[in-house]
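quick one: flavin-adenine dinucleotide bound model?
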Amino acid sequence: MSQSSAWRCSVCGYVHRGDQPPAMCPICGAGREEFQAYVEPEASPLAATAWRCLNCNYEQAGADAPEVCPVCGAAKDRFEPEAPAPAVEQAGKDVGRILIVGAGIAGISAVEAIRRSAPDAEIVLISKETEGPYYRLNLTRYLAGEVGTDDLPLRPREWFAEQRIDFRAGLEVAELSPANRTATLRGGEAIAFDTAILAMGAHPFVPPFGGATLDGVHCLRTLDNAQEILAAAKAGEAGVVIGGGLLGLETAGALAKRGADVTLLESHAYLMPRQLNRTAGELLAARVRELGINLLTEARTDQIVGDETVAGVALRDGRMVSAGLVIVATGVRPNSYLARRAGLEVDSGVVVNGRLRTSAPHVLAAGDVAEHLGRLYGHWAASQYQGGIAGMNAVGVDAEFGGLPPSSTLKVMDVDVVSMGISDPEDGSYDVIEDLRDDVYRRFVFHDGGLVGAILFGDASVGSAARHAIETRTDLSALLASRPNAVDVADYFAAQ
Ligand SMILES: Cc1cc2nc3c(=O)[nH]c(=O)nc-3n(C[C@H](O)[C@H](O)[C@H](O)COP(=O)(O)OP(=O)(O)OC[C@H]3O[C@@H](n4cnc5c(N)ncnc54)[C@H](O)[C@@H]3O)c2cc1C
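yep, here:
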């Protein structure tokens, strides 16, 4: 491991200060191997030469590449020289008032990027939630009792005053007029802006089954949601979680760890169908059952039943699962209503270009609310990167979001499960190298001499190196020419 005094978690972006990375990320629980050496980003000087990050396409002007990419944390050797960039005279100067709607990770990353590049910018940050910004991705760990409320805040309250941010919690932006450059709060107050960044995130999607509004039916998106679920679980209610994706699994695992009697319903034949193949999904099912969770696959919900209060879930095949607590974890949808009403281009999410600009000048969008090249990311790292890039563009520092391969890491279940990129390709033009031994499953997917996807179950220690190879499109033809098995490929990444 290299010499460094700071380490960045590649799963959640947490920066740990010290000579060694921590054994476990205190924020998201990722292991030591997920940490990479980190150097504090510096404000970008503007000069004749420009550099492009091969990871995330961030561009920086200057005689030399930065030690570390301020957007994705990639090291200096991951930058390539570019043709001289035109000087951005206005960068960081006279940018006026920037309004950010939503104080999740996208909103906070935007604030930080703005403050770095434009020390005098006036920043107004509006949040519908009453709590300060928190590690939303850790709500399942909170539910499991692995972290407490003190571990959740993204920034301490005093940080906002120190950074001269006009932070207003518990308020909702109800109307936006891009033409007049004003936002109107519910309650009527109008806020003028020069540039706005929409970072409103997403909300849980609940399929239209009957009974979804009964007392005792919950979703998990906010700290309030988590506290309500915890109160019901502690009261000894038997729980049903609908949805065997990442969120449903972590929620079921968390409740089981709290001693609750939990049933997990997955409509597909195996768990995490969007991220895993059948082999990994079935290995995961065994782990889920070990935790005492009653797992039902191919279990399609017909309706949630009860009078005023939930009594259980009726399945389409006639089975009935009794429960006093039902958690629906069947996906999310972007909070795009504000943008739609404002006349911005909205498809599934708010449509943005590579600079994260929407169809209206002076309005940008980032995070779960944004749709980039037809894609909704719905994950932490993408929201963090996008927030930073939107913040830079908002103050005239040109930066582009180049996309990220999909990536997911399962928390709470005490088993390493990582899926990244194209892990289960549908056509035969991909080379798949896989191996299952001693409950460790590794699957590497190659295309055109490079790694494009992987599933690691039971041992994800090479996850970081594999992700790096995918993101940087590393040429692995020589490795492939040696006809490696999956252990050889893992050994190769372990040596990187
Ligand atoms: C329990 C849970 C576990 C997760 N685990 C993982 C994980 O392990 N890995 C991973 O990559 N991702 C995970 N995610 C997803 C990840 O948390 C999200 O992708 C990320 O938080 C999105 O950040 P965001 O800033 O775009 O939106 P959000 O975090 O949703 O923040 C948006 C904020 O804007 C506010 N808002 C909305 N509309 C308005 C308005 N009109 N006016 C004012 N404020 C408004 C919302 O109330 C919210 O506070 C998890 C999510 C959940 C819920």
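The first helix runs from residue 105 to 117.
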